[in-house]
Amino acid sequence: MNYRSYNRGEWTEVYVLFYLLGQKKLYKGDASFQKLSDFFYISRVFHYENLEKVEFQLENNLSEIVIKRSGCINQRISVQDFIDKANDIFEAIINSQGRSFSIPAIEDFLKSINCQTIKQDSRNVKDIEIGIIDTKRDRHDNFSFSIKSKLGQSPTIFNAGKKTVFIYRIESNNNLDIPKLKELESATKILRTIRGQCQIVFDELKTREFTNTFYRNLILIDDSMPIIVANLLLNAYSGENNKSIIELHKKMTMDNPCGYELQNVGEIYERKIKNFLTDITLGLKASEDWKKDNTPNGFLVVTRNGEVLSYYLLDRKTFEDCLFTQTKLDVPSRTRHDYGTVYQEEGNYYIKLCLQVRFR
User: Which is it for strands 165-171 and 348-354: parallel, antiparallel or unpaired?
Assistant: First the structure.
């Protein structure tokens, strides 16, 4: 029998489904990815399959999972089966060598419960939906989440693309030695070479014309957001090795790129950066008009020891503090995303920098 290979992220989504059904509780995490004592009881979990919701409901004193499609019961499976399979997936993920791999026993189990696919539809920004019981408020609610896994490389919350670039004009009294700059293998080395002798200015007009939809989405968050993200990006590429949002925010406060003549400008920039991080975490993309009417209610983090922690928009402070303290700007492939070289246009020199954000 031929088994398909999936990457760590795809297997992790199945792991989270099985893990939560076995745990029967959804724990909250703090801003440092540590498990808190607070939790919600789980009543059911929904798995998205080609935009169809498959329901896994806990019954019989939480010892059995009832699987429903279109409201009809298809199967009853012991909770212990899901606990065992979650452990098998975790071991396979942490011991995997390549980018993708198969887990035959898990595929056989998925087929036995009529789950036809592991991959989610790319149009759906919600990876999983969970029915929770809030005993403090005597409420039953369904919350949807995206899933971020730290099993392996830290997860991205905003992926790079050819339209996630910002364009900067290089202003210099001297002609730049373009052939020499082209010998440098990274945008970081180029910027560190020229920044002391040149002014590097964010060209908002060219960026707007080139990125179009992405620029519009940033304006929807805040009309100063393109300038703010451009500053983060320039300092990430041309500064020291620390590209954490916390450190870049400190530099932004000193630069004051928006020219605020106010006290405590650091707090203003922190608020705007948190708004940006929140929206890209909830599904803002460079290629699609951003609409908030179908966003998840938060995100789940799979820690390196396999725990699943929840972060809710309802607990906005922890949600935002986690993003602000635990994310960084990343440097994606220069050749794949076509950026990071100095070029000349209409008598001016320019360089494109590419945005990607991930957890630290």
Answer: antiparallel
Q: How many CA atoms lie within 13 A of 127 on its CB side?
A: 23
On whether the CB atoms of residues 255 and 296 are closer than 8 A, the answer is no
The CA distance from 79 to 59, in Å, is: 10
For 61-91, write each residue's pLDDT tens digit.
Answer: 778 999 998 778 888 999 999 999 999 999 9
Distant-in-sequence, close-in-space partners of 198: CB < 8 Å, separation ≥ 6: 170, 171, 172, 176
48 sits in the region (left: phi over 0; alpha: psi -120 to 50; else beta) called beta
**pLDDT (tens digit per residue) in 3-14:** 888 999 999 999
3-state DSSP call for residue 324? helix
Q: What share of the chain is helix, strand, coil (3-state, %, to 5)?
A: 35, 30, 35
CB 122, CB 50: distance < 8 Å: no
- This model's pTM is above 0.85: yes
Q: Give pLDDT tens digits for 328-347.
A: 999 998 888 989 988 889 88
Give dist(CA 345, CA 338) in Å, integer. 16
